[in-house]
Amino acid sequence: MADFVVTSAKILSENKKREIIAKLGALPEQVSFRVDEALIGGIVISDGERVLDASVKHRVRAAAENVQVALANKPLEHILSSLKEEFSRSAEKPEKVQAGIVRSVQDGVIFVDGLYKARIGELLLIAGKHFAMAMNLNRDSVGAILLTGLEQVRAGDAVRLTDRIVTVPVGDQLLGRVVGPLGDPIDGGGRIEAKSYRRAESPAPAILDRAKVAEPLYTGVKTIDAIVPIGKGQRELIIGDRQTGKTSLALDAILNQKGKNVYCVYVSIGQKTTTVSDVIKRLKEGDALSYTTVVSATASDSPTLQYVAPYTATAIAEEWMYAGKDVLIVYDDLSKHAVAYRTISLLLKRPAGREAYPGDVFYIHSRLLERSAKLSPKLGGGSLSALPIIETLGSDISSYIPTNVISITDGQIFLESELFHAGVRPAVNVGLSVSRVGGSAQPKAMRKVAQGLKLDLARYREMAIFAQFGADVDEETKALLERGVKLTSLLVQPQGKPYPMAEEVVEIHVMTGKFLADIEKTKVHATLDKVLSHIRANYPDILSELEKTGDLSEELAARIDQAASEVIA
Ligand code: ATP
Ligand code: MG
User: Which in 56, 181, 280, 559 has the greatest CB count within 10 A?
Assistant: First the structure.
C-alpha cells in the first residue's frame, strides 16, 4: 500500500490524526503529517499519485474560478453578492470541493485523475470554463465526455465537481429557433432568454402517471392515417434504407400540425449540414417553424455532442408536455446516435458487444423513448409522441439496432427502396408496417373506410409478384390486381402536401366504394381531385361534419356518393 502524506494548515491533535489514519485504512507508520500555513485551513491528502484537496486555499481558488466564469461580463456590484453566495455554497458542502486533473484527452473523451466523489452524469468544470459530463467511474479515474472546449482542454487541466447535471434551456422562447446540441442558439437569431431550464436526462413518467393513447395524431399522409394510425403519446418508428423518404415523412407529420396546437421538436443527429438546412427551409416554407424547435448536431459535431442532442431535444419537448401541451418529436436518426455512442464507449474503453456496440445501447434508447407518453389528467393530460428514425442496410430490419428500436417502440413504418423507385411514394410496405396502439385512437370514420384497404393492398402486393412472371391469371386475380393498382395510386402522395382527415376519408371512401370500376387506373388522382374540389365548393358541410363527428354515418356516406356521382358519371 502506498504511503500517505497529510498536510494541514495547523498542527493536528493526536485524536484527529488517529481519526484520519483510521479513515485512510492505513497503518500509523504509513501516514506522515506536515504543516503548511499557506493552506489557510483544511487538509490535503496525497498518496504519491493522487491528491485529495480539501484545503481552504483550494476552495478559495475554485470559488474564484466559478465567479470568474459566472461574472465575466457583469457589473461590479453583482460580483460581491455572488462571491458571498459562492463562499456560502462551498462552506455548506466542504466535502464536495475536490480537485482532479485531466490525464488524457482524445476525440472529446477525457480521463480525469482524483475525482473520487464524481457521480454518473455529473457536470465537471475544467480549467474554470469548459464542461464535461462524467460517464465512467473507474477505480482510479473518471471517464467523461467534453461538452464544450473540445479544442481547448489539455492534459494537466484542473477539474472540479459541480454537483449539478446537464441542464438545457426550455420553454416557449425556443419556438421557431434552431439550437445546438446543448440548447444554445445557432440560427443567428440572438440570445434565447429562457425562463426555465430542465435536466437533459430525466426519468420517464411513471406507469400511474400515464393515460391510454386515445387521441389521434394526424400526419396528413393518407397511408399512415389509414393503415398505421398514430395516437398522441405513441412512439412510431420510421425505418428504411437510405433515401427512401424517411425524413420527408416525418417532416410531413410536422407540417400537418399547423393550426392544431401541437408543438414540434426536430432533432438532427449526425445528418449532413446541408440536409439540416434543407429541413429548416422546408419547415419555414410550410410555415411550420413557428411551432417547432430544431435541435441540430450534424455529422461535423463531435460524437459526444451527437450523443447528447436527443436528450436535450427531449427535455425541450418534455417541458411542454408537462405544461399540458401535445408535442411531437422527431429523432433523425437513432442509427447515427447509436454509432456516436459506440464511438464514445470505445474511447471510454468499455467492452464492446454485438456489432461492436456497447451492451447498454438498448438501454440508452429505451430510456430516451420511454420519456414519450400520454400523461394522466391529473398531470395535465399533455402528451409527447415520438417518431424515431432508423436507417437500415439492404432492408435488413433484423440487425442489432433496428431490432432493439423496433422492440422499444409501439409500431413501425417500414419504407422500402423498391417501392420508392417504383414511384410508390411514400414507400410504405403495408405488410410489414404496424401500429400497435394507434388503432384505438383512430376516428371511427377512418376505421370504417380503411378496414379493407390494408388487406387488399397486402394481397395485391403478393399477387403482383406472381403476375410479374407473366403467369396466366384468372378473372378474379385480374380484378384484384386492377384494384390493387388503383388503391396503390390512391395512396401515392407528394411530400409537403398533407391532407386534412376529412378529405382523406372522402378519397378512401370513394376509391373503395362503388366507383372503383368507373375510375380509370391512370386517372385516379385527377378524378379524386375533381371530386374533392366539387365537394369543397358545393358540399362543404360534408367535410365539416366529418371533422366534427369523426364518424361516417350511412347517411353521410350516401351524400358523399351522391356528390361523387355528379363528377364521375
Ligand atoms: P436519407 O437516408 O438520406 O436520410 P431519407 O430516407 O430521409 O434519406 P428523404 O431525404 O426524405 O429520404 O427523401 C429522399 C428523396 O426523396 C428526396 O429528394 C425527397 O424529395 C424525395 N421524396 C421523399 N418523399 C417523397 C414523396 N412522397 N414524393 C416524391 N418524392 C419524395
Ligand atoms: Mg433523412
Answer: 181
Pocket residue to mutate for ligand 1, from 248, 285, 389, most atoms within 8 A of Cβ: 248
Q: Which residues contact 26 (CB under 8 A, 6 or more apart)?
A: 1, 3, 4
State the chain's mean pLDDT as an integer.
90
Could you give the percent of the chain with pLDDT greater than 70? 94
Question: Domain segments of the chain: what residues?
Answer: 1-93, 95-165, 168-442, 467-568
Atom of ligand 1 nearest to the CA of 251: 11
Angstrom distance (rounded) from CA 233 to CA 212: 8
Architecture of domain 95-165: Beta Barrel (2.40)
Ligand 1 near 292 CB (within 6 A): no
- Classify 215 as helix, strand or coil: coil
Determine the topology of domain 168-442 in CATH: Rossmann fold (3.40.50)
Quick one: cell of 279? 429541413
> What is the whole-number distance in angstroms between the Cα of residue 246 and the centre of ligand 1?
6
Give per-residue pLDDT as tens, 244-295. Answer: 999 999 999 999 999 999 999 999 999 999 999 999 999 999 999 999 999 9
Q: CB of 495 closer than 6 A to ligand 1?
A: yes
pLDDT digit string, tens, across residues 350-373: 999 999 999 999 999 999 999 999
Instruction: List Cβ neighbours of 62 (8 Å cut-off, separation of 6 or more).
Output: 90, 97, 99, 160
Please state the rounded mean pLDDT for residues 209-221.
Answer: 96
Rounded Cα distance, 201 and 166, in Å: 8
